[in-house]
Amino acid sequence: MDKRKVIFDVDTGSDDAIAMMVAIQNPDRFDILGMCSVNGNRGIDYTTENTLRTVEWLGSDVPVFRGCALPYASTLDPWRRPRIPYGGANGCASGQSSIHGDLLDLPEATIKEQDKSAVMWLIETLLASEDRITLIPVGPLTNIAHALRIEPRIKEKIEEVVIMGAAYHVGNITATSEFNWWIDPEAAKIVMDSGLNITLVPLDATHSAYVKGSELREMCKSGTRAAQMMEKLVSGRIKGYGAWQPMEEEDAAPIHDALCTAYLIDPTVIDDMREVWVDVDFSGGPADGMSICDVEKRHPDKKPNCRLALHADREKFVKILADACK
Ligand code: BDR
Ligand code: CA
Question: What is the pTM of this model?
Answer without folding.
Answer: 0.95
